[in-house]
């Protein structure tokens, strides 16, 4: 990956409540954030119990922070035990290898995606399918999901298409959507300047916006 490319994987330590512990994104839930340290035996035991309960409890399926906590516990348990199989055996309950792998991948999504999960803008069940993709494709699917309000079924379909060899553009087109298409509101002064610049440069507003963003935006996590 080029040095200036956006991160497509988690950069903060496994189990650390970077998003879950930030009241900006999770409000009062931040006070309840638990860190799972895969190198601490007591914390790892807590992770194992959390995964076991998480695998058997669907009551919190609409609570995005609850789901992120379960995902963090899965990832920490895998790191501490050394394998998905060992993690599943220790957690017990309905925690299968497949279950733990899927939720560990959600925990490993980059912060820029996990923020939207915590805020309820990307459903945790949708995040599982976004996490099936690697590299830039997972970011592009996340942004397309936000821009077009994709359903979980549509996100799953696009992820499957990409994993079967289609480009993210092709997989989205199959669902009837274009990558990079979004609607934004800007103030009147900026709008006037944008239209004037496009006219003087004999181009279109999209090209002006793209060039401006590429020259000014930095890449974050």
From TrEMBL:
<dbReference type="InterPro" id="IPR055543">
    <property type="entry name" value="DUF7119"/>
</dbReference>
<protein>
    <recommendedName>
        <fullName>DUF7119 domain-containing protein</fullName>
    </recommendedName>
</protein>
<feature type="domain" description="DUF7119">
    <location>
        <begin position="37"/>
        <end position="176"/>
    </location>
</feature>
<dbReference type="Pfam" id="PF23433">
    <property type="entry name" value="DUF7119"/>
</dbReference>
<feature type="region of interest" description="Disordered">
    <location>
        <begin position="1"/>
        <end position="39"/>
    </location>
</feature>
């Amino acid at each position: 990956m080029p040095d200036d490319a956006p991160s497509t994987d988690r950069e903060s330590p496994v189990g650390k409540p970077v998003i879950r512990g930030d009241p900006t994104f999770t409000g009062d839930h931040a006070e309840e954030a638990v860190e799972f340290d895969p190198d601490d035996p007591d914390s790892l035991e807590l992770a194992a119990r959390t995964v076991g309960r998480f695998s058997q409890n669907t009551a919190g399926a609409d609570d995005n922070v609850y789901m992120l906590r379960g995902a963090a516990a899965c990832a920490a348990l895998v790191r501490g035990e050394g394998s998905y199989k060992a993690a599943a055996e220790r957690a017990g309950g309905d925690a299968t290898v497949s279950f733990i792998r899927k939720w560990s991948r959600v925990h490993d999504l980059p912060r820029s995606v996990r923020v939207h999960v915590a805020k309820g803008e990307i459903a945790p069940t949708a995040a599982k399918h976004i996490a099936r993709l690697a590299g830039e494709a997972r970011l592009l699917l996340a942004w397309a999901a936000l821009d077009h309000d994709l359903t979980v079924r549509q996100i799953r379909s696009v992820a499957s298409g990409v994993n079967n060899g289609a480009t993210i553009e092709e997989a989205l087109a199959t669902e009837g959507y274009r990558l990079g298409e979004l609607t934004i509101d800007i103030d009147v002064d900026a709008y006037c300047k944008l239209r004037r610049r496009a006219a003087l440069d004999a181009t279109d507003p999209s090209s002006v916006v793209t060039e401006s963003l590429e020259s000014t935006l930095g890449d974050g996590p």
